[in-house]
Structure formats: C-alpha cells, structure tokens
Design goal:
about 170 residues; mainly alpha; binds zinc ion
C-alpha cells in the first residue's frame, strides 16, 4: 500500500489502511438493518390493523370481493403499496379472497364467479382487484371471465392501476 504524506502536518499515513471504527461497523451492520426492517414491518402491520374499523364500516362487515358475511375478515393491502398504508389502497377480505390476492395463480375459479358482480364496484381498490383476478381467470381459459372483460368499460385511472401489478 503506498504511503502518503499529509500536506498539512507532514505526517506519513496510509491512504487506505484505515480500519473503520467499531461504531461505524455497527452503523452499517446487517443485524441492525434487519432489526430496522422488522420494526418498519411491525409499524406497518399496526397501521393496517388500525384501519380495520373504517374498512369494516366501508364494507358493511362483508368481504368486499365475494360479499361473504359472518366469516373472519381482515384488512389487505393492494399492490403497488403506498409509502404508508391508506384506506384507498386497501380491501376488507375473507380468507379465500386474501389467498387469491396473495397468489399469482387462480386458486378457486368457482369462488371467483362472484366477480361478475364485484367488478362493477364503485370502490376503486375493489374494482382494481376484481379486474386483475378476471384477467388471471381469462388467461386460465375461463370463458365467462374473457366475456366479462370484453364488456367492461373501465375508467382510465382504474385501467392504469389494474395494470400496475407487482
Ligand atoms: Zn371473500
């Protein structure tokens, strides 16, 4: 390693041989990053849970996709996710519908027959999820879904959002 002379003090020092301080190493530490990630995740979960009540009100305590009532319902976020959880990017869903949202493939086409009705929802995130699932069903050769999509008029904003699948 080449030695350098400090121009101000005439002290010889190695240009690259400085070992970062313990604190600097801790600052960039993997463990700390992980801890921060978990903390961020926990805060997000908390914020999502706190939106459960307004979601229950909006949905009338029914699954917003399949309209099931009297079943466990939970808030779910619709990707792409905003910086902070927002009501307008969330849905109140039953377990089977949450699984459809989280999956990349159709799980239960029969359960999703209800989209014939839901796709006309005036709640934007509900309509967006319905359109995405219908496109998935159409790709799965479900003729009814293809037909429904052909007859569907979408607001350009909904169309754009539906296309932003993560
Ligand atoms: Zn449902």
């Amino acid at each position: 390693m080449p030695a350098q002379v400090c121009r101000l003090f005439g002290i010889e020092r190695k240009s690259l041989g400085v070992r970062p301080s313990r604190r600097a190493r801790q600052r960039s530490g993997w463990g700390e990053k992980m801890a921060k990630g978990f903390e961020k995740h926990r805060q997000r979960r908390e914020a999502i849970t706190s939106l459960g009540r307004p979601l229950a009100r909006r949905s009338g305590s029914r699954c917003e996709l399949c309209e099931s009532s009297g079943v466990p319902l939970a808030p779910a976020e619709l990707p792409p996710l905003p910086e902070e959880p927002e009501l307008e990017h969330m849905l109140f869903l039953c377990e089977p519908c949450t699984r459809e949202l989280d999956s990349r493939k159709v799980i239960d086409a029969l359960h999703l027959r209800v989209l014939e009705k839901t796709v006309w929802s005036s709640v934007a995130p509900v309509q967006v999820l319905a359109v995405r699932l219908l496109r998935r069903l159409a790709a799965n050769h479900e003729a009814w879904a293809t037909e429904l999509l052909e007859n569907l008029y979408l607001d350009p904003e909904i169309e754009e959002w539906a296309g932003q699948e993560a």
